[in-house]
Amino acid sequence: MPLKSLTINGFKSFADKTKIDFTSGITGIVGPNGSGKSNITEAIRWVMGEQSAKSLRGDKMADIIFAGSDTRSQMNHAEVVLEFDNSKKELKTDQENISIKRKLYRNGDTEFSINNKECRLKDITELFMDSGMGKQSFSIISQGRVEEIFNSKPIQRRSIIEESAGIALFKQKKIQAENKLSETTDNLHRVSDIVSELA
Ligand code: ATP
């Protein structure tokens, strides 16, 4: 599924609002060491729902907010917007253009939206689940990730295969349904206790 553009504002080294348009074909990003190339792929993973500060090379999530430099003071929030072309309906939604946004403030407040409509992180994760994209998919291979996959435990490798095979979403829905079933069973027991007390 083609990416259309990435807009970064206040994310890591990107203090100024920066928009990268991905035109058809291959886009290469080149630059000297430490100029922010990896920060761009991290911005993509972050907006798609990455929740591990460590995997974004930080200690805490607020470390992704521009921390200031000799000439500029730190920023109070980071914002990333990623736009996709969904004309081939690879994501399970009728919309042809999808734009997802994530914003994080230093005080920990966070906002997510899909096509400018506020949503939960879960909605973004589910949108990409089984699409072959998503924060941990093979569409983004960071430095060291290949070794990490080779060295992973069988159970972790299995979850990678399940995501690629398109069954991860159903597994998650099964867990949610089982939790609901268990809550309902508890409620039924409670009702039956009340009925026998009243009898
Ligand atoms: P290499 O080619 O060596 O892999 P790169 O081009 O991929 O480098 P990155 O690792 O993306 O570079 O960027 C590292 C830079 O980002 C460092 O200069 C670091 O100081 C800066 N940086 C990281 N987090 C922040 C932050 N929160 N605020 C400001 N700058 C940051």
UniProtKB/TrEMBL annotation:
Where is the protein localized? Cytoplasm
**Amino acids binding ATP:** 32-39
| Domain of life per record | Bacteria
User: Domain comment text?
Assistant: Contains large globular domains required for ATP hydrolysis at each terminus and a third globular domain forming a flexible hinge near the middle of the molecule. These domains are separated by coiled-coil structures.
Assembly state and interactors?
Homodimer.
Q: What does this protein do?
A: Required for chromosome condensation and partitioning.
Q: What family is reported?
A: Belongs to the SMC family.
Tell me what this protein is called. Answer: Chromosome partition protein Smc
Q: Which residues of the full protein are shown?
A: 1 to 199 of 1184
